[in-house]
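Intended use. Records like the one below are meant for learning the mapping from a protein sequence to its folded structure. Do not use them to infer anything beyond what is encoded.
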Amino acid sequence: MPGHSNKPVLKLIAAVIFMIIIAAAAGALSSCREYDDKFDVSYYFKTDPEKAVLDFIYAISNHDSVYIYDNLILNKDKKKLSREKYLRELTEIISDVENIEIKRIVYLGFENDMSKVVVEFDVKYKNKETSHYKKYIYLMKENSRWKIVFDKTFI
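Structure written out for the chain above:
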């Protein structure tokens, strides 16, 4: 047809392509880990409690006791121990860790105001020994963030 234009179709195609690019960019950004902002596609598909546990493990592997204290400790636990003493003790505990490799993490559910996550991981120590652990981590939501219930998890 003379005078018939493909402009509306081209505009529609351009709009669809633009929306796909925006969606992909949003997906990529939401796939970044909270702890270190590294891109991790599997992180995107985890529950918020699992993400908190992953951030905890990554922080231990990087000897980042400050991140753990500031982001993953409940306020009631912070009141029991001074920041300086906590940082000194945790830094000493994790100083022998060379690397942590997470093997499996599973969200087990919510009960008694807590979420429960099981994580299996291998810890390689600076003396070259490696140990395998399976740990149940309990978490509570505080100020819209999941934090570790240390007394239930580690005692």
